Amino acid sequence: MSTTDALPPLDLGPADQFPEGEVFRVSAQDTGWSDDIAVVHAEDGGFYALDDTCSHEAVSLSDGYVEEDTLECPMHASAFCLRTGVPETLPALRPVRTHQITISGDHLMLHPGTPRPDQ
Ligand code: FES
Q1: Looking at the domain 10-111, which fold is it?
Q2: Residue with CA closest to ligand 1 atom 4
Q3: Which protein residue has the closest C-alpha to ligand 1 atom 1?
Q4: Which partner for 87 in 81, 92, 109, 111 could form a disulfide, CB atoms 3.0-4.6 Å apart?
Q5: Where are the domains of the chain?
Q6: Is residue 88 lining ligand 1, measured as CB closer than 6 Å?
Q7: Against a cut of 0.90, is the pTM above it?
Q8: What are 20-42's pLDDT values in tens digits?
Q9: 59-95: per-residue pLDDT in tens?
Q10: Residue 105 contacts by C-beta under 8 Å, 6 or more apart in sequence?
């Protein structure tokens, strides 16, 4: 993964509009990215963003479930690590890409194409 395909950040609005433990889909039309992006407000209070399409089949991860530090696919239940995008359970084998999320003022900023810095 590289940062060379990074796109301009997108303001998602006030962070307090994203309830903890839930996942939201941000459209590729809005970001310019090659996939929709699943934005998660995790139970640890952190915000995470992953490519929305499961690496196993073409299923939207934002229809899935936030389980501690993973996002679980709604189809076959592979659980993708929110920090790395790596599947921790089968049947998915390949990671999904992560994207950086920052807070500016009280707004959530999505950085499509910029991987999480702690990855
Ligand atoms: S489609 Fe996601 S695990 Fe199978």
Answers
A1: Rieske Iron-sulfur Protein (2.102.10)
A2: 76
A3: 57
A4: 92
A5: 10-111
A6: no
A7: yes
A8: 999 999 999 999 999 999 999 99
A9: 999 999 999 999 999 999 999 999 999 999 999 999 9
A10: none
